[in-house]
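ZP: hey, is the NAI complex queued? I don't see it on the tracker
AM: it wasn't, my bad. submitting now with these inputs:
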Amino acid sequence: MSTATKTFSILAADKLAKEGLDWIESQPDATLADHAGIDEKQLAEIIGQHDAVIVRSGVNITAEVLRNPGSLKVIARAGVGVDNIDLAAATEKGILVVNTAEASTLTTAEHAFALLLATARQIGPACKTLAAGGWDRSKFKGRQLAGKTLGVVGFGRIGQAVAERALAFEMDVLAFDPFLNAETAMDGRVKVIRDFKDLVPKVDMITFHVPLNDHTRGMLNLEVMKTARPHLIVINAARGGVVDENDLVTALDEGIIAAAGFDVFTTEPPAADHPLRDHPKALVTPHLGASTVEAQQAVSIDAAKSALAYLRGEGIKGAVNAGGIRVDLSPIQAAYADLIDRMASLIGPMITRGICNVTLELRGSELTSAASTLERTALTRLLGDRLDSPVNLINVSALARDRSITCKTVTSEVDTPGGTQATLVVEGPRDAVDTATHPDDLTRRIVGRVYDDLRPRVVEINGYHMDMIPRGDMILLQNEDRPGMIGMVGSVMGEAGINIADMTISRRASSEGNVTALMLLKVDAAPEPKVLEQVSTCAGILKAAAVKLPSITAG
Ligand SMILES: NC(=O)C1=CN([C@@H]2O[C@H](COP(=O)(O)OP(=O)(O)OC[C@H]3O[C@@H](n4cnc5c(N)ncnc54)[C@H](O)[C@@H]3O)[C@@H](O)[C@H]2O)C=CC1
Ligand SMILES: O=C(O)C(=O)COP(=O)(O)O
């Protein structure tokens, strides 16, 4: 674990189990702000004062809430569904969103199954009758699950757990999930149906375990309900809106379907006069799917741990909007991330024609698993130095896509003779006219390596070969290869009071045979813009740029 030099502030914006909150408070580098029950407006005001926020489904993290994200770096959902979080807004602001996908699977499956059993046996109305002094046994004749066919819509974690339970109850199970490419599932015990509309007429009971999105909203509507068997029981413990609520009420009233067990609603809580609240054929619970002692304890601790692990740079667990990013890099991967960041900084000032395509070539088996992170590292530097808005590993791919910048990483597990290697190639638009740039330099290419000492080295820039450790204040000069250039540059720097600590020179013959040189000066202080301008106007100097790179602690 990291040392407690920095304290991360974690905001609990929803009701979380005590165990997770206690865990946060036990950490030397974390403080807890418990604001369970906070409304959206208040949340928007304080969210930026915290490094992480943990929520359940009780609070909406809208684009408005994220308008001034301040220090916020991670939103942790203590649960599964993230439909209460504006993922696009979070991604755009560079905020990681994580969930605790597995911690509440069994609990939620049990709740869906409880609804199924209770609805089939009319437990709700029977209980109400008894409480009101009645004893009406003939009115509450139920139906047995064994021998019936259950349709499971969405065959992910919860859907499969429900199917397991249904099989144990001797039910036949049919599944529909467009992302399940098989004829059968669970060792042939579950038949997969390709089309949702084919599933509905075949089942006696149907249960939904899908996320709410444009494809699932209203997927069970009146038109589809009309194709069902009249004794169909509908269970929804996924998200309100997957089953059209108005259509459901009509179908229940008209006997198109028999009964419904609902844990989730389009608006939560549903309005006081919502027809499902007190419908004789509906058994309803107030979004209790994940509400067991065990699941709440697990999601609360998991969410707190994932948020803090990310803030500490220990890894990303349960990412919803950060496919492929890793912060728990191995030493060699971390060294390459640092090298690639420096490489992108170095060629940055030479990119004067805009960016169209970025290609990262990675050689070496150790780098493959970090490819996405390394690509995003290069892009973050290339775009971050050019855009006003914050750019980081989370939002950079979306930003590049928005600007039609194509990014590609080519990995090869065959190490070069010199070991691992990274090559970054940046291309501008083909039709951009740039008379100041030599045709050989229209594509910018930089090659770097990390050896056993884990120090970053640049070994080539656009055909100029070298072996240089990129660090500190540097000046890049491209010049005609003729006598007197070094002396001239030295005297301009001397007059400006700039000490040259180190110099690397490399020559290259152009396609027409002209020889040019690239001088890389390591200087003790950054040059004033006027010094750079002065040197760039000297005869024989083709390009001049200054770059500030981080120092290297290990020497
Ligand atoms: N009532 C409650 O308290 C709880 C509700 N949930 C909800 O349960 C749902 C499922 O959760 P998990 O099983 O953990 O998620 P999951 O991601 O493991 O499974 C979802 C499945 O739905 C499938 N799917 C996506 N689009 C589909 C479509 N158009 N038609 C059919 N299938 C589709 C996916 O391929 C995936 O297999 C989520 O909506 C979640 O929010 C989760 C926990 C508690
Ligand atoms: O995890 C989920 O998706 C849930 O629906 C559970 O919601 P909750 O955390 O109980 O507000």
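AM: back. The CA atoms of residues 105 and 158 lie 5 Å apart.
ZP: great, adding it to the tracker
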